């Protein structure tokens, strides 16, 4: 998640800290559509107050807005269309530290679906889809470190060498399914190194208390620029597909 996306999500959730806005959001969520007049009457608010807070919720992406004339009224004398609010289908969530359980769910679902069709072991397919997802994330990022930040890994330089990940985006899953999730993290970050152009980094498995199980180490540019077929790990990679 980029810093801008993080800021937008925090701002949206913070908007619900106001009791009036929270009450309006709950009111709108329980109806198909709500006008300013209806909301003001339902909560005993001045219309201007209801309008201000409803628009703030819409600006934050929590409510959708549309304009409609009342049923049965049309033509030149029908008046201005009413501004109607409904709950947005867009999801807004904030977790501290950053968690990416929706990404894990997507990768697991994709692996299970593909394996059911191809007959391959699910875990083999999971490795492949994780690498593909990491490769796509790396291609979108300006650098390897930026991709790690966007993914919620909280990279930091380690005096012992290389970069360690201060956060596991799949922490709760890793607590219950450690080997599987650590392998997922490894393949995901291996894909990132392949997606970032001229990335002079390789990843190794290196579990440690209070951080992710993957460490990133510098490598030479010539190795970084060598083509690597899908499923082929770099020299020294401790987790090779089986």
Based on Cα principal axes, name the global outline.
Answer: elongated
Order of helices and strands: HHEHHEEHHHEEHHEEH
Average pLDDT, rounded to a whole number, is: 85
Structural class: alpha+beta
InterPro entries: ArsR-like_HTH (IPR011991), HTH_ArsR_DNA-bd_dom (IPR001845), WH-like_DNA-bd_sf (IPR036388), WH_DNA-bd_sf (IPR036390)
Pfam families: HTH_20
GO molecular function: DNA-binding transcription factor activity
Biased composition (Basic and acidic residues): 219-231
Walkthrough of the structure:
With 242 residues, the chain is of the alpha+beta class. It has two domains: 3-87, Winged helix-like DNA-binding domain superfamily/Winged helix DNA-binding domain (Arc Repressor Mutant, subunit A, Orthogonal Bundle); 101-225, no CATH class. Helices cover 49% and strands 12% of the residues. The protein contains ten helices and seven strands. The strands form two sheets. Strands 4-5-7-6 form a four-stranded antiparallel β-sheet, covered by helices on one side. Strands 1-3-2 form a three-stranded antiparallel β-sheet. A hairpin with an 8-residue loop joins strand 6 and strand 7. Helix 2 (19-29) crosses helix 4. The longest helix is centred in the middle third of the chain and has 19 residues, at 122-140. The two termini are 32 Å apart. Residues 223-242 have low confidence and may be disordered.
């Amino acid at each position: 998640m980029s810093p801008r996306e993080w800021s937008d999500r925090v701002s949206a959730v913070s908007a619900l800290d106001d009791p009036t806005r929270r009450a309006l959001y709950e009111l709108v969520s329980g109806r198909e559509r709500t006008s300013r007049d209806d909301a003001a009457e339902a909560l005993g608010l001045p219309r201007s107050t209801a309008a201000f807070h409803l628009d703030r919720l819409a600006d934050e992406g929590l409510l959708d807005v549309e304009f409609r004339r009342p049923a049965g009224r049309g033509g030149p004398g029908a008046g201005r269309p009413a501004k109607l609010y409904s709950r947005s289908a867009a999801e807004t969530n904030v977790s501290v530290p950053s968690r990416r359980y929706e990404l894990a769910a997507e990768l697991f679902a994709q692996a299970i679906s593909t394996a059911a069709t191809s007959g391959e072991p699910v875990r083999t397919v999971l490795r492949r889809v994780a690498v593909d997802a990491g490769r796509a994330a790396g291609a979108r990022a300006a650098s390897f470190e930026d991709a790690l930040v966007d993914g919620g890994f909280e990279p930091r330089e380690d005096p012992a060498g290389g970069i360690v990940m201060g956060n596991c985006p799949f922490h709760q899953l890793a607590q219950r399914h450690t080997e599987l999730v650590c392998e997922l993290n490894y393949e995901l970050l291996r894909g990132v190194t392949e997606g970032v152009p001229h990335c002079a980094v390789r990843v190794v498995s290196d579990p440690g208390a209070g951080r992710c199980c993957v460490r990133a180490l510098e490598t030479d540019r010539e190795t970084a620029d060598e083509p690597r077929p899908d499923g082929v790990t770099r020299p020294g990679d401790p987790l090779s597909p089986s």
